[in-house]
């Protein structure tokens, strides 16, 4: 009997085990201690690769064996395990873990928990980088990082974004930060060669950073102070932007797909010029006031109506429309696209196991510009692999393949062939296209018609980029790691420009010109580090790193042009007359050795130090070598015993650092050497070969050196509902690399010397809060504000350096606006008035009249930042980010020309001129209309056209819906999201010009305007 009973008991257990071994569908919801759902929690079947992510409402569903154990993990929460035990519903309440709230930051040559990092570093999440439909990720930095000013000077698709970290640190040298992708410093900037001809300027319209796919980026960390940057030595004085790309994770293979489409138009349209009736009135006033005929004639239209017009105006504009009336031609419709389309598609596959992980992505991006005949098209492929060969050795490999095509319209200094310029300047009564559809070769009063140029001219560029790198790491013994990173950044750019013989305004009008250029840039970088990590007596943690780095940059270009072509043939080789050929080839190298140490005691006290030696080929002799260093310390106050009673403080940490860094970028590779030149640029030998002195030697030339101090306070309070950082910094730069004048008796006009000093100091505040957090509703808020003050401390011989409307003067801001003071309009006769240095009135803006220039302000803003709100409820997400800048002058030469009322002849004018002076006693700021008015009184840049550049812009707003996982799981989709997004939807400003975002210089001149874009899309995860 006992044997029978035992047999049945075993049978029952076997049945239960068999039942548990079968898969069961487990579902539930994950919440925190307050009952609020936790979206994005990772749910993994322990010991397997099976995993899933909770949806936006914290719900999850997963198929697992009945005896499985589920592991729940989430940033800021303690990892929790639950044994299934045959259950089909498992609801999990996760507990906060203040220790895991310590954000991981990417540091120089490594990673670190934020509390152990003594330097000033800030993360920008991958969601923010990939969220906006932008061509390059730097555009997404705008408003998302304190101390980082990211502005555009051109709205051309694929244009460069100027990024400035903690102010301007150089006058002639580069102010661009160092960009590092997966541990490899990369090339940045514009490598186009068409600007070498002098025909056009579109240097801001091309940017090789546009070859990177923002959706491949996992993290962006911006290093701002010496403790964070000095280990990069001579390349880090302007800050460092560390980028890591996405990598695979062990577990289930994941497929992510994102696609969007939308359209763009001008972000601002408040710059308006006169229509037909107002222009005819203005033209009449200008001519009559200048003493031309004031006789009138009648124009009889086909509809029988009569227009009485000044006879001189009628003689100037002879073309009539189908009604025998003056044309009312809208030039802006011929210059701009009202709905320029945008398309994006991204597909990635990632996964792996404990040994090998992979990430593969493909991307396509196509954006048409708001100016006609401008666009960018990019395709990219990326493969990232990680392999753990054994416990001690790992190997990683990354490669990016990218092709970018770009077409740009002639803007900035292309004058009459510039559609932005022409849309404003050409009179509405002077048509570009006749009623019968014929294009006018040139409007009556102008030398060219940009419509012809848009239709027949062509400027296109193709950029190919390959970025492979291999990383190997070997653990020599416990705590000692040897790591090598070898990378290559190769770029090849090809440009073609066709100036059609039918287009007036071309350099080769009636002949035709074809130009081609090729440029290639190769950056080879190799880094080897030896890292030792050791803990002594449990509380003493050490991390030492010894490293060596070598870098070589090799650049070459070639340009050729020819003229006179047979119909239908446009290549350079087809031209009957060769015009230009020239090219360059240059290199630079850098060899470095560095040492870094970090120490922390008992998770309370942290210290760091770094030392780096750089040897560069840009300088000669003993000046080739530079030494840079830093020290830093931090104190985690919240971990002290006396703080434990303050339960509302989750974390409180004080940081401070001091150190040095250098700058050698922005000058030529051979700036310190005496050079000779030859080739077509030499006219001294009547076309015969020969050498001539080209550059004076300066063997004393050396690095710009920056010393910086930083102190910061990090806090997290009220149960993690409010956190932020407050920082103060001071940076002093000496030995500025500037061109100094030489006596002409030397045979040279100048050379680079180390002759100046400048300083920057500022305050940065970052705040993140959760004002409302309920079960099905959450409101997140983030705010960052930055203020920087720049001062020129010392110049060569103490002498001012004047550059247009800017001046470098000791004791003044580096972006000081230097112009003549405007005194208004004389109400008696409508003449412009100006102040002399003695406060008297004069009528010409010239030195001879006594209207001397003076500093009236600065182009630098008083402060700037971003303000973001995000609402989440029942799967719906609404986020909006405002970017703001307060203060900073814009000197607008465009507004000068378009309110000059006659100085520029019969150009069209801004609608402000309707307020012009007309009779004695009129109080206005627009002068009397006077055809041919002198430049000395009407055409000079003065404080009249220096405007407050403050603005607030709705940089981004997104409305999205995350479908419940209970729905999507039925069709084998893990997550599904749809969204509608708008960028630059509205701008609040008192600035009357085209757009207040005019670039760091604050000087506007017919640039490509900014765009606002509306897109809708879908994201799927399988």
Please provide a written account of the structure.
- The chain is mainly beta and 1022 residues long.
- It has two domains: 6-100, Immunoglobulin-like, CATH 2.60.40; 179-266 and 338-430 and 469-503 and 543-832 and 839-894 and 949-1021, Maltoporin, Chain A.
- It is 8% helix and 47% strand.
- The protein contains eleven helices and 55 strands.
- It has a 22-stranded antiparallel beta barrel. A five-stranded mixed β-sheet has the order 10-15-16-13-14.
- Strand 38 and strand 39 (777-794) form a beta hairpin.
- The longest helix has 20 residues, at 2-21.
- It is globular.
- The model is unreliable at 1-21, 98-102 and 195-203 (pLDDT under 50).
Question: What are the salient characteristics of this protein?
Answer:
disordered N terminus; 1022 residues; globular; 2 domains; 55 strands
Distance between the termini: 56 Å
CATH topology of the largest domain: Maltoporin, Chain A
The count of helical stretches stands at 11
| CATH level 1 name of the largest domain | Mainly Beta
Secondary structure tally: strands: 55
Largest sheet: 22 strands, antiparallel, barrel
Brief sketch in words of this structure:
This protein is mostly beta strands and 1022 residues long. It contains 11 helices and 55 strands.
């Amino acid at each position: 009997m006992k044997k029978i009973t035992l047999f049945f008991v075993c049978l029952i257990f076997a049945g239960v085990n068999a039942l548990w071994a079968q898969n069961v569908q487990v579902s539930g919801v994950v919440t925190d201690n307050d009952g609020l759902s936790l979206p994005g929690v990772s749910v993994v079947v322990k010991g397997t690769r099976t995993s899933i992510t909770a949806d936006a409402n914290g719900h999850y569903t997963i198929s697992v064996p009945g005896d499985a154990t589920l592991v729940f993990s989430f940033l800021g929460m303690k990892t929790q395990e639950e044994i299934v035990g045959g259950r089909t519903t498992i609801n999990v309440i996760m507990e906060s873990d203040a220790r895991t709230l310590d954000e991981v930051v990417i540091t120089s040559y490594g990673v670190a928990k934020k509390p152990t990092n003594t330097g000033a570093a800030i993360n920008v999440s991958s969601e923010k980088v990939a969220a906006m439909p932008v061509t390059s990720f730097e555009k997404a930095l705008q408003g998302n990082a304190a101390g980082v000013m990211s502005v555009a000077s051109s709205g051309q698709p694929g244009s460069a974004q100027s990024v400035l970290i903690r102010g301007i640190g150089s006058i002639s040298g580069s102010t661009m930060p160092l960009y590092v992708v997966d541990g490899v410093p990369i090339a940045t900037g514009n490598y186009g060669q068409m600007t070498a001809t002098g025909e056009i300027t579109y240097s801001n319209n091309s940017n090789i950073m546009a070859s990177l796919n923002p959706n491949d980026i996992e993290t962006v960390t911006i290093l701002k102070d010496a403790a964070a940057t000095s280990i990069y030595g001579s390349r880090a004085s302007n800050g460092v932007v560390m980028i890591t790309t996405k990598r695979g994770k062990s577990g289930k293979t994941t497929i992510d797909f994102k696609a969007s489409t939308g359209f763009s138009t001008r972000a601002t349209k408040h710059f308006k010029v006169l229509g037909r009736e107002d222009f005819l009135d203005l033209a009449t006033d200008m001519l009559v006031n200048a003493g031309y005929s004031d006789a009138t004639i009648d124009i009889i239209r086909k509809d029988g109506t009569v227009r009485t017009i000044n006879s001189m105006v009628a003689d100037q504009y002879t073309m009539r429309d189908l009604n025998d009336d003056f044309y009312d031609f809208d030039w802006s419709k011929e210059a701009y696209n009202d709905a320029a389309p945008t398309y994006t598609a991204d597909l990635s596959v990632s996964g792996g196991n404990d040994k090998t992980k992979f990430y593969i992505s493909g991307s396509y991006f196509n954006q048409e510009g708001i100016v006609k005949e401008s666009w960018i098209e990019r395709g990219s492929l990326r493969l990232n692999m990680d392999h753990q060969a054994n416990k001690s050795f790992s190997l990683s490999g990354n490669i990016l393949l990218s092709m970018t095509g770009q077409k740009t319209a002639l803007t900035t200094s292309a004058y009459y062939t510039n559609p932005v310029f022409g849309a404003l300047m050409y009179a509405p009564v002077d048509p570009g296209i006749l009623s019968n559809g014929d294009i006018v070769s040139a409007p009556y009063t102008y030398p060219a018609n940009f419509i012809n140029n848009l239709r027949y001219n062509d400027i296109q560029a193709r950029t190919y980029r390959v970025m492979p790198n291999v990383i190997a790491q070997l653990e020599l013994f416990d705590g000692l790691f040897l790591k090598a990173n070898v990378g290559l950044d190769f770029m090849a750019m090809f440009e073609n420009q066709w100036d059609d013989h039918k287009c007036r305004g071309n350099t080769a009008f009636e002949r035709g010109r074809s130009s081609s250029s090729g440029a290639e840039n190769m950056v080879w970088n190799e880094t080897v580090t030896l890292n030792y990590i050791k803990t002594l007596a449990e509380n003493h943690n050490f991390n030492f790193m010894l490293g060596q780095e070598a870098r070589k940059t090799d650049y070459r270009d070639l340009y050729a042009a020819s003229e006179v072509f047979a119909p239908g043939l446009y290549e350079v080789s087809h031209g009957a007359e060769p015009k230009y050929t020239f090219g360059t080839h240059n290199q630079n190298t850098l060899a470095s050795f560095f040492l870094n140490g970090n120490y922390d005691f008992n998770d309370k006290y942290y210290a760091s130090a770094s030392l780096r030696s750089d040897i560069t080929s840009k300088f000669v002799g003993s000046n080739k070598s530079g030494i840079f260093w830093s020290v830093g310390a931090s104190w985690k106050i919240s971990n002290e015993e006396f703080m434990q009673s303050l339960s509302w403080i989750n974390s409180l940490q004080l940081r401070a650092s001091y150190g040095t860094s250098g700058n050698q970028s922005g000058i030529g590779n051979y700036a310190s050497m005496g050079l000779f030149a030859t080739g077509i640029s030499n006219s001294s030998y009547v076309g015969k070969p020969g050498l001539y002195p080209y550059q004076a030697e300066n063997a004393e030339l050396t690095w710009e050196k920056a010393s910086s101090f930083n102190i910061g306070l990090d806090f997290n309070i009220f149960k993690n509902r409010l956190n932020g950082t407050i920082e103060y910094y001071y940076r002093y730069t000496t030995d500025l690399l500037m061109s100094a004048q030489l006596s002409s008796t030397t045979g040279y006009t100048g050379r680079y010397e180390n002759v100046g000093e400048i300083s920057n100091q500022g305050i940065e505040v970052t705040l993140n809060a959760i004002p409302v957090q309920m079960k099905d509703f959450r409101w997140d808020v983030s705010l960052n504000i930055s203020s920087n003050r720049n001062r020129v401390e010392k110049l060569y011989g103490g002498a001012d350096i004047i550059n247009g409307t800017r001046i470098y003067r000791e004791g003044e801001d580096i972006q000081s606006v230097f112009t003549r003071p405007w005194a208004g309009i004389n109400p008696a006769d409508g003449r412009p008035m100006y102040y002399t240095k003695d406060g008297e009135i004069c009528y010409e803006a010239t030195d001879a009249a006594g209207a001397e220039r003076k500093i009236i302000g600065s182009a630098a803003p008083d402060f700037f930042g971003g303000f973001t709100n995000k609402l989440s409820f029942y799967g719906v997400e609404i986020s909006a980010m405002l970017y703001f800048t307060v203060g900073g002058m814009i000197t607008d030469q465009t507004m000068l020309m378009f309110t000059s009322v006659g100085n520029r002849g019969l150009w069209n004018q801004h609608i402000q001129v309707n307020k012009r002076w007309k009779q004695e006693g009129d109080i206005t700021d627009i002068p009397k209309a006077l055809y041919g008015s002198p430049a000395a009184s009407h055409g000079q840049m003065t404080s009249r056209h220096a405007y407050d550049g403050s603005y607030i812009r709705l940089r981004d707003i997104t409305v999205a819906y995350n479908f419940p996982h209970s729905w999507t799981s039925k069709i084998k989709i893990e997550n599904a999201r749809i969204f509608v997004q708008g960028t630059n939807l509205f701008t609040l400003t008192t600035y009357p010009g085209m757009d207040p975002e005019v670039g760091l210089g604050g000087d506007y001149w017919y640039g490509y305007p900014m765009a606002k874009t509306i897109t809708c899309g879908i994201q799927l995860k399988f």
